[in-house]
Design brief:
Order of helices and strands: HHHHEEHEHEHEEEHEEH
Number of helices: 9
Helix content: 25-40%
Distance between the termini: 25 Å
Strand order of the largest sheet: 1-9-8-2-5-3-4
Oligomer: single chain
Low-confidence stretches: 1-7, 248-253
Largest sheet: 7 strands, mixed
Number of strands: 9
Radius of gyration: 18 Å
Structural class: alpha/beta
Strand content: 15-25%
């Protein structure tokens, strides 16, 4: 591992980027992203992240905090808390992986168990919808990532324009905003080699537009410029979101999660 070899986080990231062919930028991102998760700590969150647009955030207001699986999506709200004391609580996927799988162990050990760094321990999406709404009504901002499709979960999806084509996403984020009467706080970020740090953009909050599709579209419009410039930093496969998720009727709908 990088720790055994004696490399720092940034040295490891740069090493993998140099060793990766130009066509493999996405693979380089995935490697550096996982290394970043391993080094997740308060010091790292305070020193390695630059936040812009924080003037849009009212620390006294409760939000649905949302992004895509882009860059180090789970670290950005945690860094915001470590730097500015603005807390939020990550809603983590509770369904997609077998508990004994290597990937589940990785995310639990190095990611999910450290979500308290955003101000509160992570919560699971397997809680009921009303429990998520109640957390918001208690004044605790909830981080709900837009592009999560949970196996075995019946999710009513909406088709939203994104980069010139439809993108199918669960309606959890606008629905939670509507039911809890809160605004949506979008953010997006990625690693900037020139600065040697992550740059995180916080966008103006989006109020519920009276319609789930219009509300989600207003959020996605903020994400298009950076996503179009650096598609390699997207963790998921965008092509798979150009098609509806296969429906199932075994479970009731619930919110998306990290």
């Amino acid at each position: 591992t990088a720790g055994v070899m004696g490399y720092s986080v940034d040295e490891c990231r740069n090493l993998f980027l140099k060793l990766t062919a130009p066509g493999g930028a996405h693979e380089a991102y995935l490697t550096s992203m996982r290394l970043g998760v391993i080094w997740l700590s308060p010091v790292h969150l305070r020193k390695q992240f630059l936040h812009r647009g924080t003037e849009h955030i009212d620390p006294a207001e409760t939000y649905i905090v949302t992004s895509l699986h882009y860059g180090q999506w789970g670290m950005y709200p945690a860094s915001l808390y470590q730097q500015l004391g603005i807390g939020s609580q990550m809603v983590i996927s509770g369904r997609n992986r077998r508990p004994d799988s290597n990937q589940s162990y990785f995310w639990k050990r190095f990611g999910h168990d450290r979500q308290h760094l955003s101000g509160y321990p992570g919560r699971f999406s397997t809680d009921t919808f009303f429990q998520h709404v109640n957390q918001l009504k208690r004044g605790i901002s909830q981080i709900v990532i837009l592009d999560v499709r949970e196996r075995g979960l019946a999710q009513k999806e909406i088709s939203v324009p994104f980069l010139g084509a439809p993108m199918y996403l669960p309606r959890a984020v606008p629905l939670l905003a509507k039911r809890a009467g809160v605004r949506i706080l979008p953010y997006l970020g990625c690693y900037d080699p020139g600065a040697g740090k992550h740059r995180v953009e916080w966008f103006p909050p989006v109020a519920y537009q009276g319609d789930d599709t219009a509300t989600t579209a207003a959020v996605l419009r903020y994400f298009e410029p950076l996503f179009q410039e650096h598609p390699e930093f997207y963790f998921n496969d965008l092509a798979s979101f150009r098609r509806p998720f296969p429906a199932t009727t075994r479970s009731r709908p619930g919110p998306a999660a990290q």
